[in-house]
Structure formats: C-alpha cells, structure tokens
Amino acid sequence: MTEPLKKIVLASNNAGKLAELQAMFAPLNVTLVRQSELGIPEAPEPFRTFVENALTKARHASRESGLPALADDAGLCVEAFGGLPGVDTAYYCTQFGYPKSDANNVKALLEQLQGQANRRAAMVSTLVALRSADDPEPLIAVGRAQGLITEQPVGEGGFGFDPVMFIPAQGKTFAQLPNEVKNSISHRGQSSRAMLALMRERWFHG
Q1: How far is CA 143 from CA 49, 91, 139, 174, 202, in A?
Q2: Mean pLDDT in residue range 145-173
Q3: pLDDT in tens, 33-57
Q4: Is 7 annotated as ligand-binding?
Q5: Is 73 annotated in the active site?
Q6: Could you give the CA distance from residue 93 to residue 22 in angstroms, rounded to a whole number?
Q7: Is 172 assigned a ligand-binding role in the annotation?
Q8: 7-204 has which fold?
Q9: Amino acid 158: pLDDT
Q10: Residue 113's closest CA among 78, 165, 76?
C-alpha cells in the first residue's frame, strides 16, 4: 500500500462545501485544505460544463500549491430551463439584477419558475482529483440528486438551493434534513463516495 496523502488542496473557498467534503473524506485520513488558506486565488471558470471547470480549478490549485488537488463544480439543472443555470448557478441571481448571494439565488429562481408546472430539477456535483497539475489521468466522479423546486423556501439547514430542493423520497427539502441524511443522498454525497472508491483503487491501493 502506498503512503497515504496527508494533505489535499480543495479548489474552493466555500466553508459549507469544505465541511461536507471533509466529513465524507475522513475515512481516507487526509486533510482537505482550502486554497485560500494557502494564498491561492480562485481560478477562472470559462467553460460550459461542470467537468471542464472542475478540471481547470483542480489543475490551478495543484500547480500553485504543489499538492494533490480536489475540485468540485456543482450546480442546479432545472428541466424547464433546458438544464440551466448549470455552471452559472452560483451567479444565477446576478443576471436578474440581484447582488450575488444564496438568498437572492433562491429568490430569483422562484420568480423565474412562477406559474411553471414543471418543477423538476437536479443538483449535480462533479468532483475531479489530481495527483499533480500534470496528472494525465484525473479521477472524475459525478453525483446527481433529482427533486422538485418548492414554491417557497422550507427548512433552516444547508446552503445554496437546499431550502427549495424537495426530495420526494424523503418528503422534505435538503434544508430540512439532518446533515448525515443529506450527505447520504445528496449529489455531493454521491460524488464523494464514488471519488473515495476511485482514490482507494487508484491512489491508495487498499
């Protein structure tokens, strides 16, 4: 078995994302370090797909830190909008004149879906991991959580679109679920478990 990696730089400055991922990667006995803690600026995300943006972010963080890197590009894909906002999820509200924030994203989404019968949507998470910036074989894992957009926010937990992402099998929104339940079924939970399996197989051999 190869020597476990002690640190992996997380190509994100999102504290909520770090907490979720750190909990899920605990079995590997590695520490995720946010790139901002290493003085690394965010990378541009010019692409229209989650996987291209995640790969760009991971390469940038690995090159700047000299560490293996993990990047997550995630977003909301609304069926009635042809899969949008997708990669533009974090800035969704700004196209409607609102300042960037989770609350304004939710507000803008509910306004745009007003009167729309089709409320189907999916939260998608694409994780990319690299041993180095020039790793020719990135590990790629995708998770997808299907649900319905509620008419109004429900629940106090989570972040992002969690208060309006209703999961029919649970009868609740992500924001109403305890963290351990959310992590077991969420898009990021799915992609993290798949990434854990890939890392064990390819990086740790055990």
Answers
A1: 14, 21, 14, 15, 19
A2: 95
A3: 999 999 999 898 889 999 999 999 9
A4: no
A5: yes
A6: 28
A7: no
A8: Maf protein (3.90.950)
A9: 83
A10: 78
